[in-house]
Every structure is written in C-alpha cells, then in structure tokens.
Amino acid sequence: xxxxxxxxxxxxxxxxxxxxxxxxxxxxxxxxxxxxxxxxxxxxxxxxxxxxxxxxxxxxxxxxxxxxxxxxxxxxxxxxxxxxxxxxxxxxxxxxxxxxxxxxxxxxxxxxxxxxxxxxxxxxxxxxxxxxx
Amino acid sequence: xxxxxxxxxxxxxxxxxxxxxxxxxxxxxxxxxxxxxxxxxxxxxxxxxxxxxxxxxxxxxxxxxxxxxxxxxxxxxxxxxxxxxxxxxxxxxxxxxxxxxxxxxxxxxxxxxxxxxxxxxxxxxxxxxxxxxxxxxxxxxxxxxxxxxxxxxxxxxxxxxxxxxxxxxxxxxxxxxxxxxxxxxxxxxxxxxxxxxxxxxxxxxxxxxxxxxxxxxxxxxxxxxxxxxxxxxxxxxxxxxxxxxxxxxxxxxxxxxxxxxxxxxxxxxxxxxxxxxx
Lengths: 133, 278
Hints:
A: 133 residues, mainly alpha, two-stranded antiparallel sheet, 10% strand, B: 278 residues, alpha/beta, five-stranded mixed sheet, 28% helix, globular
C-alpha cells in the first residue's frame, strides 16, 4: 500500500516493498537509429577461415563444404538486428521474421502473460507467508 | 486440481533408488499429482526402484536406441549421460497420455520463492505448477525452467525471464524439441535452438537447488569427475561457436564453465508495434 508522509512524498509499506522486486520486461526496446547492415554481423573469424581454405590444396567440393561450415563463426548482433528491423520496410521485415532474426510477441502474449505470472506467484507467496516481517 | 490432470513430474534418475531427494522434496512442498520415474534399461538398480516406488510409477526406456538417434557431439561411446532420458520423456509422456510434464533431476534439496530477501520454501507446489502451466499454455515457447543458485550470484537477479533453460524443463508433447550433445545438453539445446528463433525461458522468481555437480555420487557426477568441466563446456562451444566460449567461473569451487554472449545468441523479442502493416 502506498502512503504519503509529512513531506508529501510517497513511500511504500515496508512489508510490501520487501516482496516487490523490479520486474524486467522480456521484450527488447529498439533504438531510434537504424544501424548499417554491416553492423549487424561480424565476419572476422569467417574471413580468416575463408583465406585458409582458399590457400589450401583440398578439392573444390571440400572447399565448398568448409566455406559453408565457416559461416557458423559469423557473429550476429541480435540487438542491432532488432534495431534494424524496427526501421526496415515491410518486405525486409517479413524476410527477417521468416529467418527468425527477431521474435514478434504477437498480441503481447509473452509480455502480458509474464505480468500475470509474476502477479499470481506473488499472490500465492503472500497467501502462504502474508505481509509479515 | 483440474489443470494438473494432464500433467506429471518426471524424475530422471539413475542408480540412486534409495536416494531420490527430489521425490521427498516435492511431496514436502505440497505436490499431490502424478510422478513418473524415468529410468534407463542399463540401470542395474531397476528392481530397487520398482520396490521403492511401485512398478506403475516407473518408465524404462532403451538408452542405446535413443543414443543411436542423436548427435552426441563426441565419439566417447559413453551413455552415462542424461540426454537420452531427456529425449525419451517426450515419447513416454505421449505413451502415458500426459500432455504437459516437467523434467526434474533426482537430487534437488530445495524449491522456493525467490525474492530480494532470499528464498522461502513453497508450501503449495500444486498451485505453483498450475500458475506456471497457465503461462506456458498461453505463450508460444518451447520450455521454461526454474532458476538455480547460479542465476542469483551476487544477490537476487530481479524478477525476469532469462533466455536460458536448464535442468528443470516444463515441456509439452505438442512442442517437442530434441536435446543435442551428450553432455551440457541443456546449454547446447537452448543456444542452438534459441539462435534459430525457438524460445526458452528461466523464471527467476522460483528457485531450485541441487547437489553440487561434482560432489554427489551416481547420476551425472561420475561423468563430470572424469573429464572435469572443460569437455562438458566445450560441447556447447562446438554447437554454437559464434557466441559461446569457455571461461573460469568462481562458484563454490573455481572451475571452467561455458560463457554465453546473449546478444549474439538469441534473437530479440519485440513488441508487435514495431511490425509495419502490409
């Protein structure tokens, strides 16, 4: 329960505050600026591997396989990818969704469900332990 | 409790018929529903499990059959690992007509609410499962787990949904997935599937504790003692080399552990307002 003290500012009942922790949203808030596509991934290790593969004497078929495998070392920055998505056109957004580069929380099912989950667990906790110090 | 009609706790256990701490714990925490003991056919103590818990509560799976159908990530030919039981659970649940189940290890000693002031034991686990199931059913995720001590190093982490999922997996036969890599199978699975857009969560408001990885006999302990945690962690590096590395972890015992760079592992979850109308 929130109360007002003599100086007019609000403070929380101590026993309630004890069981109230900041609930962190599972959704990401994209930034206002769209990053360049080159910022979305880092290919240093993959490039080094490509160079080694190209210098090697293995067969072309083996080279092709190794180049595909080297792609496993590409580092994707999913925060920047989400920033990019928020400013992309509909066609690009659709392709990014198809590739699961972002996860759209349709009808805010995760966010709202999560709030309910926290509320219900807290209610159950208080039912078992009450507001006692 | 009606919502728990098609739900069961699966305890994945091996060679510890007289020391299944999890069973005692969940009963003490007020769980009244069905429990299924998941045991492999290579366990020499099956008879004792039957004696202790009743034939009707035990499901035995063919470990070699599952081992032959998964990428173990190594050629050790060592089946003293939990991954096969984890994968078998989906088939067992389907066979028993159980749609929702939680996979528990056999060595848990506490299960509680986690807040800033510490952990307080759950007294009505039925209700907690009911709440968790309600959330699970309402969202399109593969699995959700309870947090563990490591999630709160340095104090309470706050209430959050982490993108990891370890140890206690709430699953559905409708949302099958396959664990990969014979050791560190949980990390291997949530990083590789997570990077492809499958969603896994850990809910930090509920916490469970179990015996130290390298301190109790039986189960997976022998496997870890054999190779330390380097080989264990390296399985996840092999599976997800772009965002998982090995680092030192300062827990109770200093040891090597996997380290995940999350912003390079799982795609972000976005509010639908950022999706432009077509």
